[in-house]
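Crash report, auto-generated. Payload:
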Amino acid sequence: MELLKLIGVVIVVIGFILKKDTIATVVLAGIATGLVAGKTPVEILDILGKAFVSQRLATLFVLTLPVIGVCERYGLKDKAVDLISKAKGATTGRVISIYLGIRSLASAFSVRLGGHPQFVRPIVNPMAQAAAVVRYGDLDEKTEDDIKGYSAASENFGNFFAQNCFMGASGTMLIVTTLVEQGVEVNALQIAMMSIPIAVIAFVVGVIHNHLLDKKLNKRFQQVAQEEQK
Amino acid sequence: MTTNEIIAEVFYCMIGIIFVLVGVKALRDGGMKRRISTALFWFILGFTFIAGPYLPYWVTGIAVVAIAVITATGGVKQSKSDDPKPEETRKVADKMGYKVFIPVLCLAIFAVLAASFLPFGASNAIGISAVAALIVLFLVTKAPVKATVSDGTRLMDNVGPVGILPQLLAALGALFTAAGVGDVIAKGVSAIIPQGSRFIAVAVYCIGMALFTAIMGNGFAAFSVITVGIALPFLIMQGANPVVVGALGLTAGYCGTLCTPMAANFNIMPTALLETKDKYVIIKSQLPVAAVLLVVHIFLMYFLAF
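Recovered output after restart:
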C-alpha cells in the first residue's frame, strides 16, 4: 500500500483548504504519516522532536522583531507614508508603481508595512483614484474597482516576490531548513542573493502592468469622450 | 559543540526568552480570554527552544504535540499590547525624520556582511545583525531598553503561533522522508517527466508549486511537499543547483497564491476593506502578472540551475 503513505499530504491539503488550525494540521499530518509507515509512537515523537530542535533556525526572524517594533514606535510607518505621498501628480499607474517599488524595498529589508489595511486603503488607493479623477473626471464603478484591484495587487507583488531577499525572512529560512533536512547544504545568504533576480523581474513586470492600466484608462475615457461628442 | 553551535544556542535561548515573555504578557493581562492556555503555549515553545537539545528528542516531540493541541482548541489568543498610537508616532516621526529607517536597514545589511566576512555561518549572521542593529537602534532613537521588550513581544504576539509554521513544516518534511513519501510522489511524477528531460522537470516543479499553493492557499506547505517529492529527485539529484531550485521554487508557488481565493487574506479580505463591487477584482488584476511570472520562473530556473 504505497499510496497510503500520501495520507500526510492529503491531510495537509484538506486541512489548509478547510482552514483548519495550521499547526495542528501539520502535526497531525506528520503523526499520521509516521503511523502509516509503521513507526512506533515513540519513534514518531523522536523524529518530530529532533527535526523541530534542529530546525529552530527557521524561526530566527523572531530576533529581528524588537528592532522593527521599536522603529514602528518611532515613526517607521509614518515616514513610509511620507515617502509615498511624494508621488502626488503622477498618473494612476505611476502612483501604484511607486508604491510597488517602496513595498518591494520594504519587503526586502523585512519592514512590515502592514499592507492592505495600513497602506493600500488609506493611502495608495485614494492617491491612485485621485490621479484618475484629475485626468478623466468622474469615474464609473468599473474603473474604481479596477484601480482598487491594481492597488491591492501591487501590495501582494511587492510583498511576495521581494521578501526572500532578506536573510532572516521566514520564507528564506523555510527553503534553507527544508533542503538541509534533506541533506542538501545551502545557507541563508545564498538563498537571499538568489532571490534578488525574481524580485527585480517581478517589479519590472508590475510596472509594465501598471503602465498598461494607464493606457487602458486613456482608451476607455477617450471613447467615452468621443461618444459624448457625437 | 563547536563555537558556531554555541553561538547559535545563545540566539535560540534569546528567542526562547522572547516566547516566555509573550507568555508572561498574557498572564499579566487579567481581562483576556484563554489566558492560561495562551501562556502555556508560549512557555512550552520557549522551553523547546532553550532546553530542546539537552533532552531526549521525544520530550520535544511531546511538547510539539501539546502546542498543536492548544492551537487546535483555539487556546492561543492575543493579549493586550501597548500599541503605539498614531498621533504619538506621527509626532516622533516628524522629529526623527527618515533616520528611523537606519536601524532596520542595518538589520539586512549587517546580516549580509556578517555572513560574508565573519566565520560564524549564515544563520548566526542573522542573530549577530539583530544584536548589532539593536545597538544602532539605541544610538539613533535613544529608546529605553525596556521598549525592546514591550515592542518585541507585541510584534511576536501579532505574528502569533503561525510564526513557527516554517519550522514545523521542516519537521514534517523529516517525517515524510522517514516514511518515504518523496519516493511515492516521485514514482507517480516520473510518469509525466520523460527520462533526462530537464526542462520538463523544471516546468513540472514550478507549475506543481503554483498549483499546490493555489489549492492550499499556502506556499510554505506546498513547498515542503513538492520540493521533497519533485525537486529533490528530478532536479537536485540530477545536478541542478539547489540554491536556484529552492529560491525560485517558493516564489513560483507565490504565482499560485496570486490566483486563488484560498489565499483570502491577500486576495479576498482586502476587497472588503476597499469596498469593491467585484469580490474577485484583485485576483483578476493579478492573473496576467501571475502567468507571466510563472513562465519567467520556469525559464530562469532552467537557465540558472543547469
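Post-recovery validation: DSSP finds eleven helices and no strands in chain A.
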